[in-house]
Amino acid sequence: MAVTDWLIGKSGLAPRDADASRVSSTPPGRNYREYNPEVGANQAVTRVKLSTGVTLAFMEQGDRSGTPVLLLHAWAESLRCFDRLAPLLPPSLRVFTLDQRGHGDEDKPPDGYDLDTLATDVVAFLDAVGLSSVVLAGSSSGGYVAQQVAVSHPDRVAGLVLIGSPRSLNSRPPFADEIEQLADPVDPIWVRQFLTWFPLWHDVPAWYIEDRAREAVRIPANVWQASFAGLISSPSPTEVGTISTPTLMLWGDRDQLLARDDQLALAAAIPNSKLVVCEGTGHLLLWEQPEFVAAHITRFVGRPALWARPGSRP
User: What pTM, to 2 d.p., does this model score?
Assistant: First the structure.
């Protein structure tokens, strides 16, 4: 299950030709830039039209020649959930954060929330910004999407970081009835109550929690429901395919949503994986312990290694 060295580095990350035509206009009232593949995003919030038909927002930071890392947020969050993590990552990494469909301030189509489609969006994003492969790091259900990318498009995933991510979401959680009864406008009071399903064991800044509540309120009720249904109805990636990419798993031992046995089963299903336990922390590991997450991502990505895939060397 555990490995001592991972096959991560800049090798094999030669950019594909970015499609400069996949650009759309700036939405009113938002300070967005159009994506220019020649200069990158340069830490501005940028929007890009994907071949899957959706336009999504993303941010980019760090050295454009560094190892690319794409951070995928959890269900009902947005790229802003990484506001405390991203500044802790070394500038030598090229870090992307992305709003997934239906979330943040971008396109909210009525459908397309199954794992296959979400994974296809991720690959389309890599195509749009000219990346052949990345290290994918996903928080909670963002890691579930990352697993699907690793199963469906293994050549596009150089490494996998799963932050409190499930092996399967096919069981019905206790809050399912509440999600199915939502109507517009989504009640901010309900959103704040919903967040209490995930207890916090460490202090989290009030502004950060308030930001998560505000972004959840902006999600229409039908997208809450469609995205939830898509996650719990999609087959578990590790049950329908094999993940061979080097994988780091981070998990809090007070996680009341994902039991230890769940994480051990996921680690066993990914042969080239390592499980690291953060003691005294719950499911919202990203919220509670961004320093812990940043340190382990940095160490994981920085491991010296060789590439086994053909054409992966510089």
Answer: 0.85
